[in-house]
Amino acid sequence: MENMTDKILHMLQAWKILIGTLIKWMIFSVVIGGGIGTIASLFAHVITWVTEFRIMNPWMIFGLPVGGLLIVFLYKITGQGKNSGTNMVLLVVRSGEEAVPGRIAPLILLSTAITHLFGGSSGREGAALQFGASLGGWLGRILHLNESDKKIVMLAGMSAAFAALFGTPMAAAIFPMEVISVGVMYYAALVPCMFSAFIAQQISVLLKVRTLTSPYPVENVPKFYSTAGIKAILLAVAFAFAGAVFCVLLHWFEERLKEWFVNPYIRVVAGGVAVIVLYLIVGTDAYLGLGGDIIAGSFDKPAGIEMFLLKILFTCLTLCAGFKGGEIVPSLFIGATLGSALSVFLGLPTDICAACGMVGVFCAVTNSPISSLLIAFELFGFAGMPFFCIVISVSYLLSGYQSLYKEQKIMYSKTENKYIDRHTS
User: Fold this and answer.
1) HEC sequence for 62-79
2) Quick one: angle between helices 147-166 and 190-206, nearest 10?
3) Which of 13, 227, 234, 361 has the most C-beta neighbours closer than 10 Å?
4) pTM over 0.90
5) Measuring CA to CA, how many Å separate 44 from each of 51, 113, 130, 264?
6) CA-CA-CA-CA torsion for 128, 129, 130, 134, nearest 10 degrees?
């Protein structure tokens, strides 16, 4: 009886600590989700405005090299020329050897806006991860949190920014915990990431950035237990290959441009000119900016088979030259257009193929299957669930150890039950 009493007392003591921790993270989540959600929502409106301005004034594309010079100059005077980007965020959260400077937040937001104003082919969620981590780290420092809590606050900041911009709070909560070290989830951050993500998403709804309805509802879903299931596997093979090619070319362009143009000012001008020339050759602005209209259109009618390749080329030239934004939305563009194009050859509905392409390529380039599955559910609904599951699992396996992020680590083998702890290629 005495032993039972001691166990109950120990349990109550533990509960006291856990309840205190829950209250602490709920309070932090309100601050993080509310603050970063508001900033991210305003940033989304800025990107929309500069994109609309660029579309109404097509001549803005010819100012891309000038915009690039401004971006390089801003990074130079702030001392962030060599130590920046999502790779830095992944390294800091995993190792804690340094901090993400607070000045990264305004810097990446302004640079991304400049890139989109002049028509650079990039996303914005990569910027969200960087400024979310930057603001989260800044908050941790001013509150004098310990190293563990600082990392958790950074992850929560990343979740809040991603949720506000992308409108997928479940995926936003899990993605920062999953992407850093694949195979090892930072579950200590689950509560603050989840709360921050949903609060930020609600802020984005209030500020009319997002709605609570699925933006790409998939309605034409064939029977899975038929030849359609086999075709889904074929789709996954194509998406894994496209994702791996995107990663390889992105890193190749980065290395070659740095080799050919050592001076960052010359490099960004050369990249800007290359994008302009490519734009004039293809004769369309479909590959500039986010490409949201093209993604949405891929669900309605088949895209051209060349579109995903051109998007890869435009994005590699833009980001590797020194422009800012992110690789995630381009990966969704690549997947949507490739899936849409392949629907013609496989005889499957266009919308389910485009949806599978988006999450299949996203998984291939980020090695984040759980986040990919949650994105599928939040963007497309549950009707196509069997297809999403098969495509994501196969794409994860076949993409190998490629990644958008060189500082990402794969902790467990994709082919064996084996601990490997290796960086991605």
Assistant:
1) HHHHHHHHHHHHHHHHCC
2) 30
3) 361
4) yes
5) 11, 10, 15, 28
6) 100
